[in-house]
Write a structure and sequence with these properties.
Layout lengths: L1 H16 L2 E2 L2 E2 L11 H13 L5 E4 L3 H13 L4 E4 L16 E3 L4 H5 L8
Length: 118
């Protein structure tokens, strides 16, 4: 599954690079969803309210990406990183200053890298 592959990649990077930023040890909490928006919203609420996370790595889908962006606008104390969603809305259309992306968006995936001559 895509999510499990992503988690394994993340854990491999942590094992290779370490789990510290500066002198601070980082604890990672993984929440799973059933790929529905409603479940993702509940998981996010638990991570924030119960687990007291400060950084969120998410979301996986376009729909959740757009809804996540709306949420980030209301929670400036949280830092969020778009780990997989191709939704342009997350970082291009009225982006929140605390929401970052390290993957390409859908327009970049579909855009050409040169000219086609017929």
């Amino acid at each position: 599954m895509l999510g499990e592959d992503g988690i394994r990649g993340h854990q491999t990077a942590l094992n290779t690079l370490g789990k510290k930023i500066g002198d601070k040890e980082i604890e990672f909490i993984i929440a799973s969803t059933d790929a529905t928006l409603e479940f993702a919203i509940r998981a996010r609420a638990q991570l924030i309210e119960q687990d007291k996370v400060q950084i969120l790595l998410s979301p996986l889908s376009r729909r959740r990406g757009h809804r996540s962006e709306e949420f980030r606008q209301t929670r400036p104390e949280l830092t969020s990183v778009n780990a997989a969603s191709g939704a342009q809305e997350t970082t291009y259309v009225d982006p929140a200053p605390n929401f970052f992306r390290y993957n390409m968006d859908g327009a970049q995936w579909a855009g050409g890298s040169g000219q086609i001559r017929l």
